[in-house]
């Protein structure tokens, strides 16, 4: 609805536009305007006084009154409609306000409920978090207890294993001590026993050897030929000394008397002698000498590595026994594979001890039990270089010979230049190449320690060689124990 004001003279005309009355109202205003113009013009030019004009004026006034009445009716109706519309709008506004207030109340209620739910969930989450944390702490504590139990069990197992190892070591030590004491007791008993060394006549020797028949000859050593014979139904080996070695019968007889009383499991037993002709009678060894077995002479089978370790320990044991003999230490002077004999069980025994030198007690007080001889005796490649150069003999001279024998056991090679080849192989990392393949699959680490010990024994200077009793023998016995586990 639009309202406008128009000034015509002193009167105001109200123009109301509506969808239904705009055209009629405008028309009435136009008619009214025309009437006004006519009235003005009549005032300026007074009309003629006639009855027709009076009637027209009355008609116009009547029309104006009718139009005004209609407009007033319309305005009244419009005002009534507006009031109704206003009431309706107010009612709708009230309704919307009520709805808004209800929505606000519902929103507040929902918010309160939401806050309650959030608080409940938060409290529940806190409770659950607390429970989870407590469960985690319980699990960690249980895991820590299990860990402590596991560590305690492991520690207990280690202690039990340590105790078991100690018991095993103690038992082994007790067994070794018992065997050692038993062996020492047997050796002492044999040493203290009065052993009569039988003296054979030359006729008995000739009969046993069939007049030294070549068919009974089983070997040739640096001291003379060796014959196999049978005396009193016992197989024996008779060694006939060369004529130049048979001189000095009193000294020979004295040494025979001393050596005949010596008994050791790894020394060939001297059964008797024929002093007049320089013949020595020994027990017979079925598997002959170590040299023949190392080089597989006459098709003999090679020795396995564990047997070689055991033989090395046996040789060192016998040699140590000779060096500790009192009152005079015995130096073998010619230790080599040919003088190491093997019985039917491949137990090694050192032979030719009867030709060894008794180091006097006065000389035994010197370092290494040394004495001065007029001429060096021994075999090339096995003889101590310092003894060969100076003529001074000592127990360390046998250590050098032992080192060469040990190198031959591990390589199966001849003694010439052997120390150089083994030492070069170790320095260049080719030690496995020098091991004797016929001995089987060697334990390389143990064989290397064995070879390094042998090289130390072969030092040129006597003072640089290791001690037999405290260094060499314990290591060889350890390797012997290893070989016994494999065998």
Describe the structure.
- The chain is of the alpha+beta class.
- Among the domains are: 1-38, no CATH class; 191-284, Phosphorylase Kinase, domain 1, CATH 3.30.200.20; 287-487, Transferase(Phosphotransferase) domain 1 (Transferase(Phosphotransferase), domain 1), CATH 1.10.510.
- Helix content is 58%, strand content 13%.
- The chain is built from 13 helices and 14 strands.
- The protein has helices at 22-44, 51-192, 202-208, 249-260, 290-294, 305-323, 361-364, 385-390, 395-411, 418-427, 431-434, 444-457, 468-486, and strands at 2-8, 11-17, 198-199, 217-221, 224-231, 234-240, 270-274, 279-283, 329-331, 340-342, 348-350, 357-359, 371-372, 392-393.
- The protein has a six-stranded mixed beta sheet with strand order 3-7-8-6-5-4, with helices on both faces. Strands 1-2 form a two-stranded antiparallel sheet.
- Strand 7 and strand 8 form a beta hairpin.
- Mean pLDDT is 79; it is low at 1-44 and 360-369.
Percent strand equals 5-15%
Q: How does CATH name the architecture of the domain at 287-487?
A: Orthogonal Bundle
Shape: rod-shaped
Order of helices and strands: EEHHEHEEEHEEHHEEEEHEHEHHHHH
Number of helices: 13
């Amino acid at each position: 609805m639009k309202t406008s004001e128009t000034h015509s003279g002193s009167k105001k005309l109200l123009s109301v536009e509506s969808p239904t009355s705009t055209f009629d109202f405008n028309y009435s205003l136009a008619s009214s305007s025309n009437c006004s113009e006519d009235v003005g013009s009549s005032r300026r030019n007074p009309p003629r006084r006639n009855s027709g004009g009076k009637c027209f004026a009355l008609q116009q006034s009547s029309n104006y009154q009718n139009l005004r009445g209609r407009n007033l009716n319309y305005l009244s109706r419009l005002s009534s409609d507006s009031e109704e519309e206003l009431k309706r709008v107010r009612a709708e506004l009230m309704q919307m306000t009520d709805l808004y207030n209800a929505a606000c109340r519902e929103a507040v209620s929902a918010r309160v409920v939401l806050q309650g739910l959030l608080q409940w969930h938060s409290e529940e989450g806190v409770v659950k978090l607390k429970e989870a944390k407590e469960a985690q702490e319980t699990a960690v504590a249980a895991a820590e207890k299990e860990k402590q139990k596991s560590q305690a069990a492991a520690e207990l197992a280690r202690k039990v294993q340590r105790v078991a190892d100690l018991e095993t070591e103690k038992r082994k030590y007790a067994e070794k001590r018992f065997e050692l004491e038993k062996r020492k007791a047997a050796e002492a008993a044999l040493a203290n026993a009065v052993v009569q060394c039988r003296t054979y006549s030359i006729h008995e020797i000739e009969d046993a050897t069939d007049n030294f028949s070549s068919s009974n000859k089983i070997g040739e050593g640096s001291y003379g030929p060796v014959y196999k014979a049978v005396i009193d139904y016992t197989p024996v080996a008779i060694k006939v000394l060369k004529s130049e070695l048979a001189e000095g019968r009193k000294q020979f007889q004295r040494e025979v008397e001393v050596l005949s009383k010596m008994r050791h499991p790894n020394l060939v037993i001297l059964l008797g002698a024929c002093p007049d002709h320089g013949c020595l009678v020994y027990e017979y060894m079925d598997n002959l000498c170590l040299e023949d077995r190392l080089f597989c002479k006459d098709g003999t089978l090679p020795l396995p590595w564990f047997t070689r370790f055991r033989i090395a320990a046996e040789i060192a044991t016998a040699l140590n026994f000779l060096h500790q003999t009192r009152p005079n230490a015995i130096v073998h002077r010619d230790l080599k594979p040919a003088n190491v004999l093997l019985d039917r069980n491949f137990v090694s025994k050192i032979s030719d001890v009867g030709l060894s030198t008794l180091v006097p007690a006065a000389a035994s007080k010197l370092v290494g039990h040394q004495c001065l001889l007029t001429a060096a005796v021994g075999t090339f490649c096995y003889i101590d270089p310092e003894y060969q150069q100076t003529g001074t003999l000592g127990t360390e001279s046998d250590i050098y010979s032992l080192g060469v024998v040990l190198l031959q056991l591990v390589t199966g090679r001849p003694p010439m230049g052997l120390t150089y080849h083994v030492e070069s192989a170790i320095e260049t990392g080719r030690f496995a190449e020098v091991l004797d393949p016929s001995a089987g699959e060697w334990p390389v680490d143990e064989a290397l320690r064995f070879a390094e010990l042998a090289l130390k024994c072969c030092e040129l200077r006597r003072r640089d060689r290791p001690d037999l009793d405290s260094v060499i023998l314990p290591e060889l016995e350890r390797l012997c124990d290893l070989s016994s586990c494999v065998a």
